[in-house]
Structures are given as C-alpha cells and as structure tokens.
Amino acid sequence: MYETIQFIHSYWAYLVLFMLLIASFNGIIGFAANKEYSATNFRIALFTLIVSHIQLLIGIVLYFTAPYFSMWAEEGMGGVMSDATLRIYNVEHPLMMIIAIALITVGYSRHKKKLTSRPKFKMLAIFYGLAFVVVLSRIPWSAWL
To answer: Which keywords accompany this UniProt record (predicted)?
Structure first.
C-alpha cells in the first residue's frame, strides 16, 4: 500500500507544481499587464487550490503509512532531528507543504474578496508565488528525480 500511495503522491506533485507555476505566472502577468480578471483566471486559481489540497490529503495518508513515521517511536525526537533523512521526511517536508497549502488557501480566499481585477491578480501572484517557492524549497529532490 505504501508504494502505491508514494507513487501517486510523487506523480501528483508534478501536477501541483505545474498548476502553481501557471497560477503564479497568471497572477503576475495579470497584475503587470493590468488585465481584466475573467472566469478562466478564476478556474486556474480554483483548480490549483483543489489539486494542492488533494496532494495534501494523499501526503497525510502517506505520512502515517510510511516507514519513516515509526521512527518517532523508535528514535524519539532527538534521533529524528539528528538524522537528516528522517528530519526531512518527518518534519521539514510535511511542515513546509502544510505552510504552502495554507498560503494557497489564504491567497485564494483573499483574492475572492477583492472587487477589482488588479488586486485579485496581486493576491494570487503573492500567495501562489510564495507557495511555489516554499514547495520547491522542501521537495526531497534526491528521492524524487
């Protein structure tokens, strides 16, 4: 079961990264070019929100089924934090991805409250862009590529 969930989580991440990239650039371009906010822009932001939350749910299931999770009981907090591999899989990656999802959610919520196009694009560009950087910073590249 673990291998299947890990496979799904790894390949769904490509979709999340792609959508975050598209949504971030969409926000930046829309803000810089002073474009009119349209239904397409809304759908891009919404789809990015949805795929990232699905990735979070897959990640939560993976976290609790992974062999790394049992290391909390075996090694304790000190043992997990002193081992770089355990630390990235048990602490850094999950925490940073939750922060990224929170940024996406806040950005989506705040952009909906804006009444004109330019502030909508600004909110999306800032929050989705920050989320994209956070996600890139904590992907376990050695295991992923």
So the answer is: Membrane, Transmembrane, Transmembrane helix
What are the structure tokens assigned to 9, written together? 């989580």
In DSSP notation, the chain reads -HHHHHHHHHHHHHHHHHHHHHHHHHHHHHHHTTPPP-HHHHHHHHHHHHHHHHHHHHHHHHHHHSGGGGHHHHHHHHHHHHSHHHHIIIIIHHHHHHHHHHHHHHHHHHHHH--SHHHHHHHHHHHHHHHHHHHHHTS-HHHH-
Token pair 């990224």 is at which residue? Answer: 100
- In tens digits, the chain (145 residues) has pLDDT values of 888 998 999 899 999 999 999 999 999 999 999 999 999 999 999 999 999 999 999 999 999 998 888 887 788 888 888 888 888 888 899 999 999 999 999 999 999 999 999 999 999 999 999 999 999 998 887 776 6
At residue 29's C-alpha, the angle toward residues 24 and 30, to 5°, is: 95
Specify whether the CB–CB gap between 94 and 87 falls below 8 A: no
Provide the CA 115 distance to its chain's centre, in angstroms. Answer: 26
